[in-house]
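Mods, move this if it's the wrong board.
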Amino acid sequence: MAGLGLDCLFGESILSFAGRALDRVGVQFTTDTEVRCSVAAVLLVTGILCIAFGLAMAIKRVVLAVRPGYGGRIADAVLNDSTLRRGPSVVVIGGGTGLSTLLRGLKQYTSNITAIVTVTDDGGSSGRLRNELGILPPGDIRNCLVALADTEPLMEQLLQYRFRCGSGLNGHSFGNLLIAALTELSGDFELAVRESSKVLAVRGRVLPSTLSDVTICAELIDGSIVRGETNLSAQDKPIRRVFIEPQDCTPLADAVEAIGEADAIVLGPGSLYTSVIPNLLVRQLTAEIAASRAPKIYVCNVMTQKGETDNYGVFDHVKAILDHSVDGLLDYCVVNDGRVSEPLLKRYSEMSQHVVRDDSKRVAALGIRVVKANVVSETEVVRHDPIKLASVLMQLIAEIREAQEPKPTVRRFVCRMFRRREYIRS
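Not the wrong board. Structure tokens:
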């Protein structure tokens, strides 16, 4: 259309037709030049509007392809995605419900997220797929993918759907079956997770801590050995230490690279001995964490866990992490100081679970800075609030980065202004 407008200015192709059409509606022009210029203006404006509309629709299609189900303004979506891409690189290490809860909050602040997830689960749907198909347990991976996904609610519900009947399907999660199917098709669990991330438009990456078929084991206070995550959680004796078999497993290269490039490394929240510490038993992973210059932040649990952390305080959680890794691994510890309602406290007490004792002064004595904040969310259960926790972490990371940046001096400011003035003069 715009091209036709330009043609009117320099050619006679549609001039006579336009003149006759305008004569019929009673519009009179004194010269052919007026006809040519008027038609050209109309066609140019129409053409520009068509081009603008086409570009807007193309951008909208791109946005919907990247962020399915988005119903807001396109400009807001583009600006939001641009802001998230400039966010800090955060590596989060753990597993279970705690890790996925944190990821739901973090993705609101940055898309540069790498979740390193434990692969020791041997119960439920994950355990069955692990035993029957010989694949790594997909459950915690699935939860993290869904937490970081930028997709329609129906897709999330589908991936989390658990079959309730059928001799073979009963108890299986659809998302677990999807990852299992992709593993069979590709022959590679890591590739299956990567392809699942593409399908779900995941913000960031989700990586297993190792591709080895590992089993978590525990030595109890009486010297007995318990093997398997399910058995470990079911026993009622204090845990002396945990270890994995085989012990010589190696981490993924992408996980090592992510730790080396991280602006911050976060451990937890999640089950201490079955979600957080198993990742640290992959020795090369722990070595990379210790060598990283990024701040290491541990998010302590709000409640104790029966069979794992009975009667534990904040210090006990931190000490267990250090005992299973290296001294000096942690720089910060986030502790909840929000209140839990009495009805929930009573319900948890009946399950032999209590609020983690706040003995953070002992943690501070280790040289670890304690950050206290109200990060708890109360529904039918006591958990960390995704947005509250992510906000506290992002504020802490921002403060650390600001403190590490060189402070401007008067001399540097004067030199900068002088160079600016010389540039303007030139």
